[in-house]
Amino acid sequence: MMFSQAHGLPVVTLGGADEIGVVESLTVDAASGTVSHARIAPARGRKETTIPWNAFHAFGPDAVLLRSDLPPDPAPAPSPPHHEALRARVLTEDGDERGTVKDVSFDPVTGRVEKIYTALGEIPGDRLLGLGDYALVVRTG
């Protein structure tokens, strides 16, 4: 699945089919090379929230299912740092420019980053080293 395809997907609870909101963006943990959280734009009567990857039952083409219902007003949990991958500048560890991120593919079951699509071509996900405010950094090679 692509980050661009995930954006805007409705997030619903498995048991009650209550809509929590829609996927606003995905947070990447560069150290593990996986999607760690989804940032959810709220549905009516709810607050914006960040949901950890392991809370999802299924991440499909039409909707995202949560393993269990969230409390009506979940206590705010510390959110992990979020840096937007899409449109990020891409640099190698040596400082060479590799374009900008056009999209990212990830495994919808494990959250593993599979490929990074840039303006200059594809980069395997296992070359991801870091993602910050300034750039997405990949291993040279």
Walk me through this protein's architecture.
- The longest helix has 4 residues.
- The protein is mostly beta strands.
- It is 3% helix and 47% strand.
- Strand 11 and strand 12 form a beta hairpin.
Helix/strand structural class: mainly beta
Count of helix runs: 1
Radius of gyration: 16 Å
The end-to-end distance, rounded to whole angstroms, is 25 Å
Largest sheet strand order: 4-3-2-1-6-5
Content of β-strand: over 45%
**Mean pLDDT, all residues:** 89
Helix fraction by DSSP (H/I, runs of at least 4) = under 10%
Largest sheet: 6 strands, mixed
Shape designation? elongated
Topology, number of strands: 12
Low-confidence stretches: none
Order of H and E elements: HEEEEEEEEEEEE
Keywords:
single chain; six-stranded mixed β-sheet; 47% strand; mainly beta; 141 residues
Concise overview:
With 141 residues, the chain is mainly β. Helices cover 3% and strands 47% of the residues.
SSE diagram, text form:
Elements: H1 3-6, E1 10-13, E2 19-29, E3 34-42, E4 49-52, E5 56-59, E6 64-66, E7 89-92, E8 97-106, E9 113-118, E10 121-124, E11 128-131, E12 136-138
Parallel strand pairs: 1-6, 7-12
Antiparallel strand pairs: 1-2, 2-3, 3-4, 5-6, 7-8, 8-9, 9-10, 11-12
